[in-house]
């Protein structure tokens, strides 16, 4: 019986032109486009400089800011008040005010105070922008003061520690994001496909035709699961291929882990879609339910914000998010080449989710009411 | 039909409630083998709910019933092996070809690939649809789809076939052809349980029951009902009974 059901599913998938487009477009969107748009690296911060000193030293500082690569100078204003107008109008992100007598007091060996005012409506931009700017100013102070060693570090003045970044030496944001985005890709695709497929049968009335036949529930669900698993693995390969071709990110020795974790996680995501479809009668209902859960899962999976910095209670909630374990496993496999044995804890969690959710899917699928 | 032959459908005070609403209210009847049993009633009278209970799609709240010898409450999966069902909504897979639909349902009932293939050819020949073997179902006209859906419902030679308003939306000629199929199925020993809104179709049935507000108000051969209500047509019989309804139709 399974053979006939599978045959039917595969024929329907092959004939569904929308689906085949999704399978190509979704990996392109998530893996090729998203890493650029989700980047939290702050560049091109617009600085408005108020130079009250008009000395050579103050001009050198302004040049250094401009030359740092992170900033573009939005303009020079005569007073702090006028510079603030620029921030209000949105033409500047940060105001740098150099006080009168800046050069003189430096000449006396003092440390004159410059004022940095950042627009923090966009917290990341304001925060990181002012940090960069402080670093530039500190480096300037160190250079001018002659202590080259501190300047070389480009960090805030003081005995800066030497930092060596392991696994992602250049701190490239994409290297960090792409494995997580592959997790997003698989979640979106497998959850949506399953949910919409089953609700589609409900809307067409064909599921009722199946319900009056002796097809066992578990067999029907298995027949839905297997093609989706194949599609999930296929889109994983697209994702991995795109990541390598476009961003040059390849999974080191982590490939066995990536394949194994995806194989298990697809079952989790599909089962979720199935549970959602069992509680929805229409496509709209299924879509809303799905978006609700997907958004929650994405925000708490540690993709965009580290789980460790969430409040205690929120961290507890994330333990119930299967995507959290998958995202972590994908990152470790990609960046560190971790083997399945090293990720045993994550694998156990995901395996547990797969069993529980699939059991729930079979139990909540009612052939009669 | 004088004395009842072997009983295929039996219900005893079968009832279905949804909360406070009693959709089907203590209905009892028997249907014999090979009989064409018309199940009439206004919209909202409870026909579809009763039929869904008999098909094992809906569990009875009260009372009991059996179909093909199996209890509908405790052995719904056994019931499902022995029945065919054609719902109000046309429900073959539109994105599968004609032969693929037959292969799927043949496979589900365990007919085997070879047997399904020969039966498919036979059936399409009988329906005059040989040329449409490789056509996607969605490309067929409605009348053909209905004939095909009926043929799928009886493809595995069930003991009973349930038809829920099978001829909605097609012209009288197509309806007549559809009833020819029903007659030939009944002749081969398949019991036909059919709901309809067309009173001319009611005349084609061996016996009809008329449901009003969840209860069966009349049950007999069409000729006997007309005599009982002193009405010239089934249409008139139906109208007299339906007038008693207090429930709003949907």
Strand and helix map with partners:
The complex is a heterodimer of chains A (369) and B (250).
Chain A: H1 2-15, H2 17-37, E1 45-51, H3 56-67, E2 71-76, H4 80-89, E3 94-98, H5 102-107, E4 115-118, H6 123-144, H7 148-153, H8 173-204, H9 206-211, H10 217-247, H11 255-278, H12 283-299, H13 312-318, H14 322-336, H15 344-364
Parallel strand pairs in A: 1-2, 1-3
Antiparallel strand pairs in A: 3-4
Chain B: E1 7-18, E2 21-32, E3 36-41, H1 47-54, E4 62-67, E5 70-71, H2 76-81, E6 83-86, H3 98-108, H4 113-127, H5 142-153, E7 160-164, H6 172-187, E8 191-195, H7 199-204, E9 207-212, E10 215-220, H8 222-228, H9 234-242
Parallel strand pairs in B: 3-8, 3-9, 6-7, 7-8
Antiparallel strand pairs in B: 1-2, 1-4, 4-5, 9-10
Helix pairs in contact in B: 3-4, 5-6
Can you put this structure into words, describing what you see?
The complex is a heterodimer of chains A (369) and B (250). Chain A has 369 residues and is mainly alpha-helical. Chain A has helices at 2-15, 17-37, 56-67, 80-89, 102-107, 123-144, 148-153, 173-204, 206-211, 217-247, 255-278, 283-299, 312-318, 322-336, 344-364; strands spanning 45-51, 71-76, 94-98, 115-118. Chain A has two domains: 2-38 and 170-364, no CATH class; 45-153, abc type-2 transporter like fold, CATH 3.40.1710. Chain A has 15 helices and four strands. In chain A, helix 2 (17-37) packs across helix 10 (217-247). Chain A is elongated and about 95 Å long. Residues 147-160 of chain A have low confidence and may be disordered. Chain B folds into two domains: 1-82 and 158-250, Rossmann fold (3-Layer(aba) Sandwich), CATH 3.40.50.300; 90-157, no CATH class. In chain B, 36% of the residues lie in helices and 26% in strands. Chain B has helices at 47-54, 76-81, 98-108, 113-127, 142-153, 172-187, 199-204, 222-228, 234-242, and strands at 7-18, 21-32, 36-41, 62-67, 70-71, 83-86, 160-164, 191-195, 207-212, 215-220. Chain B is globular, with a radius of gyration of 18 Å. At the A-B interface, helix 1 and helix 9 of A face helix 2 and helix 3 of B. Chain A: Its main location: membrane. Chain A: One of its GO terms (molecular function) is ABC-type transporter activity. Chain A: Belongs to the ABC-2 integral membrane protein family. Chain A: Keywords: Cell membrane, Membrane, Transmembrane, Transmembrane helix, Transport.
């Amino acid at each position: 019986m399974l053979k006939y059901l599978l045959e039917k599913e595969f024929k329907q998938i092959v004939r569904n032109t929308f689906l085949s487009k999704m399978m190509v477009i979704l990996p392109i969107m998530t893996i090729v486009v998203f890493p650029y748009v989700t980047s939290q690296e702050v560049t091109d911060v617009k600085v408005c400089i108020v130079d009250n000193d008009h000395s050579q030293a103050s001009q050198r500082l302004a040049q250094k800011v401009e030359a740092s690569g992170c900033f573009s100078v939005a303009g020079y204003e005569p007073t702090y008040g006028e510079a603030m107008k620029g921030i209000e109008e949105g033409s500047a992100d940060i105001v740098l005010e150099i006080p009168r007598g800046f050069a003189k007091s430096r000449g006396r060996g003092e440390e004159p105070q410059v004022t940095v005012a950042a627009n923090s409506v966009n917290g990341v931009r304001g925060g990181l922008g002012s940090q960069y700017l402080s670093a530039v100013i500190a480096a300037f102070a160190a250079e001018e003061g002659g202590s080259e060693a501190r300047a070389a570090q480009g960090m805030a003045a003081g005995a800066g520690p030497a930092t060596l970044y392991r696994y992602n030496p250049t701190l490239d944001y994409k290297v960090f994001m792409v494995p997580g985005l592959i997790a997003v890709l698989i979640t979106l695709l497998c959850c949506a496909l399953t949910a919409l497929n089953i609700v589609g049968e409900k809307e067409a009335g064909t599921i009722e035709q199946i319900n009056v036949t002796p097809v066992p529930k578990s067999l029907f669900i298995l027949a839905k699961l297997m093609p989706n698993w194949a599609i999930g693995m296929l889109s994983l390969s697209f994702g991995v291929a795109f990541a390598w071709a476009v961003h040059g990110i390849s999974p080191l020795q982590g490939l066995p882990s990536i394949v194994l974790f995806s194989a298990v996680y697809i079952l989790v995501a599909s089962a979720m879609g199935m549970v959602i479809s069992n509680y929805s009668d229409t496509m709209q209902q299924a879509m809303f339910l799905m978006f609700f859960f997907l958004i929650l899962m994405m925000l708490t999976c540690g993709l965009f914000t580290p789980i460790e910095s969430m409040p205690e209670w929120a961290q507890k909630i994330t333990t119930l998010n299967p995507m959290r374990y998958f995202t972590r496993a994908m990152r470790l496999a990609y960046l560190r080449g971790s083997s399945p044995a090293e990720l045993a804890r994550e694998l156990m969690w995901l395996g547990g989710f797969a069993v529980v959710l699939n059991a729930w899917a079979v139990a909540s699928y009612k052939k009669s009411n | 039909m004088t004395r009842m032959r072997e009983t295929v459908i039996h219900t005893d005070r079968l009832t279905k409630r949804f909360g406070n609403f009693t959709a089907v209210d203590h209905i009892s009847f028997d249907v014999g083998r090979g009989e064409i049993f018309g199940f009439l009633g206004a919209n909202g009278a409870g026909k579809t709910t009763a039929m869904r209970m008999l098909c094992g799609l809906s569990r009875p709240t009260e009372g009991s019933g059996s179909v093909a010898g199996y209890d509908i409450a405790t052995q719904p999966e056994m019931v499902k092996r022995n029945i065919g069902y054609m719902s109000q909504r046309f429900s073959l897979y539109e994105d599968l070809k004609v032969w693929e639909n037959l292969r799927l349902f043949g496979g589900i009932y365990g007919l085997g690939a070879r047997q399904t293939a020969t039966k498919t050819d036979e059936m399409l020949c009988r329906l005059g649809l040989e040329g449409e073997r490789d056509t996607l179902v969605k490309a067929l006209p409605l009348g053909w789809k209905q004939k095909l859906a009926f043929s799928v419902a009886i493809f595995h030679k069930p003991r009973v076939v349930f038809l829920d308003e099978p001829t909605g939306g097609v012209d009288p000629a197509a309806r007549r052809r559809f009833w020819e199929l029903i007659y030939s199925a009944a002749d081969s020993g398949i019991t036909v349980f059919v709901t309809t809104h067309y009173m001319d179709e009611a005349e084609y049935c061996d016996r009809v029951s008329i449901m009003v507000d969840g209860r069966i108000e009349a049950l007999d051969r069409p000729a006997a009902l007309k005599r009982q209500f002193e009405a010239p047509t089934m249409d008139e019989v139906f109208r007299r009974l339906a007038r008693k309804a207090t429930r709003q139709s949907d």
